[in-house]
User: What shape does this take?
Amino acid sequence: MKMIIRFMKDYKKESILAPLFKMLEAMLELLVPLVVAAIIDKGIYTGSRRYIFMMCLVLFALALIGLLFSITAQYFAAKSAVGAASAMRSRLFSHILSFGYREMDDIGSSTLITRMTSDINQVQNGINMVLRLFLRSPFIVFGAMIMAFTIDVRAALIFVVTIPLLSLVVFTVMGVTKPIYKRVQAALDHILNITRENLTGVRVIRAFNREESEKEAFFAGNDRLTALQKLAGMISGLTNPLTLVIINLAIIVLIQTGAVRVNEGSLSQGEVVALYNYLSQILVELIKFANLIVTITKALASVNRVQDIFAIAPEMKEGSLEYSSFYPEKQSGVPAVEFSDVSFCYNEGGEAAVSDITFRVEPGETIGIIGGTGAGKTTLVNLIPRFYDAVSGTVSLFGHDVKEYSFRELRNMVSVVPQKAQLFAGTIRSNLLMGVPEAAEQEIEEALAISQAKEFVDEKDGRLDAYVEQGGRNLSGGQKQRLTLARALLKKAPVLIMDDSASALDFATDARLRQAIKEMKHKPTVFIVAQRASSLMHADKIIVLDDGKIAGMGDHASLLQECDIYREIYETQFKKEA
Assistant: This one.
């Protein structure tokens, strides 16, 4: 609840006015049975049509004013609920963006999407309903009971017995259904995860003819979600019939008591009708309150799930060193990148992905990284921009530990072309300008030329303004890779990491790309992760990884002589000379 109140602090006025206007509406509603009683006792009983007409006008005025109060309350409640939910969603999104790769790996994207959409929507509905009904319904219930005492004390005692019984039913249902709704949201997480995997991996599923097994997995998860929702619905559904039984029994007792009291002359017919109307009001409000409790139960379960994400603190602590505070390119003898006894594992206590890594890279050098599948190539380069933190050892950038830099400065110093080419819906220009929004037209054209993307971009209608679908679905693999290369090159960062980013390019295009990067004016330090020896053989230094450790380091010629693993990789790709 503290979290909800924190996000509602900017909507204090709306959060006060909404229940206030609802209370005013409730006060008018409590006057209606008294007006009806007056119509019966003073108008119908005496046959005064003028009095009946005047009281009907009063009823109409009460209804009209009550409607205006209700609309005003709804406006303020909606404004507060939507505003608080919007602030919560924005804050949650910012918090998620502060997560490192480790937190994202642990939580999963489908879970985060559910928390940001379904869960926050439940919280928004809960806030809206609470502001409208949480005070109004109890006010009507207890107000009706008090008004009943003003009419007749003995008949009002029926209310004293009925209200606690109804409250017991409502709060028991709330207590039982709250944990079930939490499990419902967790099951929804699971369904969304299965759906996401199937939609993104549909080609693989069809290639291996796994449609039926995936359907079975989905149906199993869906059946579990349905069963939980049915269970929650069945328990929640008991609220209305149980409250109706209690209220109807109370009405029977009230009518019997009222008939006796009217016969004795202690009560008038209008007063009995007023008591009946007050009991009916209690019934309606408690049914509303029961439904409100269900909504609150869902909202509280969702709040706890959102709070769980807020409670996760990013492991990485940001440094304060600014790139502009020194000039690494003018310092002599300072390595561009240096690893000192670096080890890293993805899971705490698990097997090391890389271990005992030590090497030094001078500014302007081109470093190739090669090895078998799972050797730790991507893991190694991900430690440089601090996507992950080393478990032990030190990763240094231009003489400073990467942990000393602020995240913004570190990512400005290192430009990364990821293993999986990722483009966003928009235009070619908007994708290229993600890293450098203020880049000039000439710089864009230069980046396209170096990345070998200019050729196909020139053929597109609108060139840089050509539309790119989400994920680059309307582009080939090679085109996506070249655009992600151009996006990274546009930053002109002192360190460039190409993580197997030319795998979809032919040998000729790959060779032209490497030559163009070598001739770049600002001479970046380049890391090339590749499976093909041809992409690395002209590098200044090649690091060969095997099972997370350095198996060899040197240039192409020396590794052919001294490193069996490198020689094996090379000879499987090139015909061995006689």
In short: The first helix runs from residue 2 to 8. The chain is about 65% helix and 10% strand.
